[in-house]
């Protein structure tokens, strides 16, 4: 759970940083356009920069699901 929250926090941080840069920069963009651009750019950044964290979270989730399935299977047999 801790790794999931860390990944979420880092993705949110990337979004806020990009949105901050777009807000400070004198582009004259509407707020909705800035948020949309920040969303897309932060998504691309997090795809490349957070690969290791994403793989760790995926492994944890798969292990958790497998363990839960095994417990249910064992409970059904007993």
Protein model, in words:
- With 78 residues, this protein is mainly alpha-helical.
- 88% of the residues lie in helices and 0% in strands.
- The protein is built from three helices and no strands.
- It has helices spanning 2-24, 31-49, 51-77.
- Helix 1 packs across helix 2 (31-49).
- The longest helix is centred in the last third of the chain and has 27 residues, at 51-77.
- The two termini are 30 Å apart.
- The mean pLDDT is 94.
Question: How do the strands and helices of this protein lay out in sequence?
Answer:
Elements: H1 2-24, H2 31-49, H3 51-77
Helix pairs in contact: 1-2, 1-3
Outline of the structure:
By secondary structure, this protein is mostly helical. 88% of the residues lie in helices and 0% in strands. The model has no long low-confidence stretch (mean pLDDT 94).
| Main sheet summary | none
Name the structural class.
Answer: mainly alpha
Q: Helix and strand succession?
A: HHH
- The radius of gyration is 19 Å
Question: Mean pLDDT, as a whole number?
Answer: 94
Key features of this structure:
78 residues; mainly alpha; 3 helices
